[in-house]
Structures are given as structure tokens and as C-alpha cells.
Amino acid sequence: MTRVAAVDCGTNSIRLLIHDTGTGEVSRRNTIVRLGQGVDETGHFAPEAIERTRAALADYVEEMQREHVTRVRMVATSATRDAANREDFFAMTRGLLGQIQPGAVAEVISGEEEAALSFAGATADIDPARGPFCVIDLGGGSTEFVMEDHAVSTQMGCVRITERIMRTDPPTAEETAEACAFIDAKIAEAASTVPFADARTFVGCAGTFTTLSALAQGLESYDPERIHMSEIPFDRLRKVTADLRAKSAAQRRENPVVHPGRADVIGSGSTVVEQFMDAFEREADATSFIISEKDILDGIIAGLTQG
């Protein structure tokens, strides 16, 4: 039996999945590091953001060593594609990941590869009879839309929209209206590549979607087993998203299912999801999302174990 690891570093969080080829999942972790702090405005990683990411990755490497991981693949997505000083980030990852596999370093993958990996992971546990699937991976800096033969990455995410548009806490009506117009334009951009009208089931993955599922179900704590493969009707989701946007970040943090590091951006994330629901109702008569805890990490693991 062999143990392999996948690491995904996005705009808002860094995540780890350790997998045993004989027994399956060993560990799955998520740490909010906000690597993309200010990148949309400055074009550079903030030194403190790189340090937060370094500390989290060092902790993950220690766990990989304890679990005898022999192969690792780390991907970096939206924020790293945008940052001028990304070589500082790469040097940091090379030093840490090399302790597990000589020569390993974070890879900047295209939005299209990110989408394909997310699709493979997110749909792994869904009955194929419910297809065609459209997977939406809503991140901090970008959002990927992917169907079987179509994929697109858009520069739209909860951190980017919070920093660029929805700056007030809670956001004003004017900021929300501006954000909705921005989001609608990005959805229209995606629709020119991805045929939403052909989708039968819409699958949401990543932290905004999973948190919304927990809230819609009224969970008292974040429970991945109850969130994974939950099907949440749009009408119930709209009540949750409106409530979140009306609250301040401090009020959101009071709910135990909302990660403290996500509380300041989930209002923007909720607005994105609301616009998705409007579009998918209009284009495909959709009425619900299936929420998947599996995503790009699971797609990476599949590649490692099949290679």
C-alpha cells in the first residue's frame, strides 16, 4: 500500500488530502490563510500572507511525514496566477514539499485543468443517471464551471468581490447591486462556453457551498458527512444567503458552522450563489444544488493513484 497527498492552495485557503491506496482517505484538512490578500489591488502577495501559508504547509508536511506519504502534488490556483512575486511562493513550497518528494514544488495550473480536476472529484459519488452534470467550484479568486466536454474559469470569487466591491460590513444595497451586475456578466461569459441549458444536475463544491448547506440544514456543527451529497432546494438557500448578507462578519462568526476565516467573505459568496440560482433557473429550470465535499483534491488523488 502507498500513501499519497494532494494539496490545493487557493486565494482563501490551503487544503490537504492524504490517501492510502489500500484503505482510502486518511486525512482531510482545511486552513484559511488568505494567500490572495490584496493581490487583486496590488498584484503582489503580502509577506504576511506568504508566512501564513508557509506555516500551514509546514504543518501539513509534518503530517505527511507522520503518515509516511511518498508522493505529493500541490496545485496553486487563482491568486498565484495573478501575483507578480509568485517566485517567493514557489521557493517556499519547494523547500517544504521536497522533504516528502525530492523536486516537488507547487504547480500553477490553468483554470481549465482546475475545472477538470474539480469535476472528477465532485461527481465521483453521484449516480451517473443524474447527468449531465454542471459542476461549479466557487473559490476566493476564481470560479470554474465545468461540464463533461466544456470548462471555463472566470475571475470571480468571494475574496475578489469582497475586496473589489462589497467592502462595507455588512454590504450596502448599492454595493450588492454592483456585485450582482459584475457576477451576471461573468455568468454570461461562462455561458458562451458552457451550455448550462443542457445540464440536468448542478453540483456546488468548495467552502461557500458547503457552509451554505450546513446552514440550510440547520446543523449545530460542521458535519462533512451530512453535507456531502446533500441536495438543497433553491428556495431554502435564498433564505440563508439573504440572512448572511444582512449580518456583519462578527455576527456570522457566532454561528459554529461558519469558519471564522470565511465570515468576512461569505456575504459576497452568498451573493454569487444567488445569481447562480437565478441563471440556472432561467436556463435549465433547475431547482436545487447537490453539494459535494469532494473536489479538486480528490481529482488530484485520482491522478496520483492512476499514474
From TrEMBL:
InterPro entries: ATPase_NBD, GppA/Ppx_hydrolase, Ppx_GppA_N. Keywords: Hydrolase. GO terms for molecular function: guanosine-5'-triphosphate,3'-diphosphate diphosphatase activity. Residues 25-297 form the Ppx/GppA phosphatase N-terminal domain. The keyword Hydrolase applies. It comes from the Bacteria. Its EC number is 3.6.1.40. Pfam families: Ppx-GppA (PF02541). PANTHER family: EXOPOLYPHOSPHATASE, EXOPOLYPHOSPHATASE 2. This is Guanosine-5'-triphosphate,3'-diphosphate pyrophosphatase. It comes from Corynebacterium ihumii. The gene is gppA.
